[in-house]
Structures are given as C-alpha cells and as structure tokens.
Amino acid sequence: MTDYDETEVILLKGRLDGKQRNRLKRLLDMMYKPREIADEIGVSVDRVYMVWIPGGCPHERDERANIWINGKAFKQWFEVTYAKRPLKAGEGFCRTCRRGVVMVDRIRQNKDRLTYDLGKCPNCGRGLLRIVNNHRKHND
User: Which of 9, 27, 120, 140 is least surrounded by CB atoms within 10 angstroms?
Assistant: First the structure.
C-alpha cells in the first residue's frame, strides 16, 4: 500500500443529500443551537455534535457553555469543506482509500446505452466502476 497526502482524502462523513443541501440555503444570518440547525437541515443532532463540530464547524460557546452556530457562516463552511472534487480522465473513486485514484487494468464496457470503465485501485486492489457516458432517451 502506498502512502498518500492526507489533503487528498475526501470527507464522506457528514455529507448531505440533495434535499438537505437545498435546505442549507434557508439558513439565516443568525445564531442557531445545534438542535435547531439539525432540524432545519433535516439531519440528526448527533451529526452536528460528533462530525461537524469536531470537523471545524464555526461555532461559539456562551458563558453557560451552550454552543451557538451562525447559519450563514455554517453554510459557507459546509460548501468549502464538502465541495465536489471532479475526477480526472482515467480515475475512479476508491471508497476504501477515500480518494480518486488512477484505475489499473481498466476495461471499457457498454451495456445498452451506458458506457463505463471497470478497473482496480492500485493501492488496495478494490474493484472500481466509473460511468463514462450515459445516452438516455429524452422526452421532448
């Protein structure tokens, strides 16, 4: 197994689905409690306490040790921390290594209108799949 730079690791914990990412836009420039942020976005409060706050989410503590999170600052932090990182040509995402790797023993296959590459991770040997082209019929 080869060593790699830790900055290349893509965060998988704490990601949001599309509906939850859209709810981020509703956060106002005001202070929220972790429970309020979780309810507004539609996640469990455990994710706020166990993933985002230890991961560097901007927050403040008052004199009673209550945690307060600014909605606008949280949204900006989330978009930077969990930004999409496109893969280069010939790369696939290895879920074991948690990063994009150049696929070895790559084979291009077609099924109906779907074109995809099959290969292996050079570090751990896990099988990788990357969809290259998807020609679907469009209803006009």
Answer: 140
- Please write the tens of the pLDDT for every residue from 72-124: 999 999 998 888 778 888 888 888 887 888 999 988 988 888 888 999 999 99
Give the Cα separation of 63 and 21 in Å (integer): 32
With contact defined as beta carbons under 8 Å apart, do 27 and 74 qualify? yes
Q: Full-prediction pTM beyond 0.90?
A: no
Amino acid occupying residue 86: P
CA distance 130 to 117: 5
Nearest in space to 120 (alpha carbons), one of 128, 132, 131: 128
Tell which residue, 113, 98, 106, 97, has the closest CA to residue 130.
106
CATH number of 16-81: 1.10.10
